Amino acid sequence: AEEGFVGAAIGAAYVGMRPVVEFQFIDFIACAFDPIVNFACTSRYRWGQGVPVTFRGPWGGGLRAGPFHSRNVEMWFAHSPGIKVVAPSTPTDAKGLIKACIRDNDPCLFLEHKGLYRRIKEEVPDNSPPIPIGKAKVVRSGEQLTIVSYGMMVHRCLEAMAQMQDLSVELIDLRTIYPLDRAAIVESVKKTNKIMVVHEDTRTGGIAGEIAAVVNEEAFEHLDGPVIRLTAPDTPVPSAGAMEDVFLPSVADIVGTARKLAAY
Asked: What is the domain range of residue 34?
């Protein structure tokens, strides 16, 4: 089913439409990996024809949905040139970024964290503008430590920061996984001199490793401590609630890791 309607959407894009393909759970996008990655993502590079399709779906853990309905698929596609990957954490960013995705002339993956549905609410004007893809947002400014995150973990980081009033922490919401806003990260590190990355994706191959490489290449001389990754372990998402609570980075994990880095 997924391969079929993705193929139909790509065909519709070729004849002038801008389809939005919705997956019941983003995990099922694996069934359509071939037409997205090998066809849609490479179309412009192969013969100059863009594929303006937006692929959207619920993503992420924390809702006891188990390994088949909780995957973090962002890095599958961030490592596939030709598609943009966005992951908003607020209603305003969701609206602005979905507008930008639909108007983009190439494929976009729009990730909607299930843990934020019906939880994070705010007034969004009818005429709110698109938000540029590839631009991170400084959620809170700080001087002693930078935390970089995205999706549901942005809100978990905010909860942790409420318990660290004595530390001046800068929180950056990536909003876009690919293309990565390298400049925003480097600028923050040059100010705070310390950085940790928090994400619920598994550790190996996660965006935290790429961010560590960027900081190493462009801001190494500004570091006063190691680049720290706080992530899920390299296992499938557990079905058992108690195990999932341990699997995902918690508020206590963020507080403990941040304080350890701040004291380095």
From this structure: 2-116
